[in-house]
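Researcher: Please predict.
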Amino acid sequence: MKAAIKIAIQGELGSFSHEAAERMLPRSAVVPCARSVEVFDRLQRGSVAAAVIPIENSLAGTVAEHADLLVSREVFIQSEFLLRIVHNVIAAPGVKLAALRQVLSHPVALDQCRDFFRRHPRIEPVPFYDTAGSVKHVVANRLPDAAGIAGRHAASQYSGRILQAGVEDDKRNFTRFFLIRKAAGKPEPAARKRPRQKGSSAAAPGYQRLIPPGANKTSIAFKVKNLPGALFKSLSVFALRDISLSKIESRPLRGRPWEYVFYVDFLRGDDEPARNALRHLDEVAEFVKVLGIYRAA
């Protein structure tokens, strides 16, 4: 029988990342990691075949640490998945909602459940390192007056009891996850000092085999030159080819104060217009990195 492939996630078993990993790669063996950097370290060492990371929440925005790690590490985005986030109040068996005095969870989850705490002013929201970890903690210690906020996976994983389901304020709460794999070879700028044959892939050597059939979305990061109109010129390479951008945002460049990296998602795969746009972008930007080419969720 073929062994299940190992997938790293940040957080405990039973977390939303665990659920996303099982949805993206069924029958895989999920490896929980305490910190995000450990996920990327395991992937680069080859102790796991892939990793599933949250990159963006529809309410809380981009997961900044993961965006930075995608630029600095030798990884490639192979697919994306949108997971509907449903928060539940979960306690040890026998604990009643009326007995609660504290509810623990990740700060982002607590912030997404403000209405619950307004309706129950006697209950104190307590920040914890992980959603599923909060359930693991209250159940393992059989806390009589505390609960965690997490997904149903956590209740099942740790034999907790759901006291109240769907306590999130906004029912259109989604998290976007990436499936990433180790890149073969060192990531390179899109075309820097590497003349390309017409029709060659926009991805760096070693990335081509990771692009799935039917890929229709690309994520890149680039830094503009410190010149007037540099950002306008950078974005014009897409407009000139009628390529639609689905996302653009900037992040500080680590180690270089007051300099920024732009993150862009555009709705093309590894085709000729996309390749030409990236070659053109490389001429006007300081650097360009293709983070992934994949099927849109």
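Model: The chain is about 25% helix and 30% strand.
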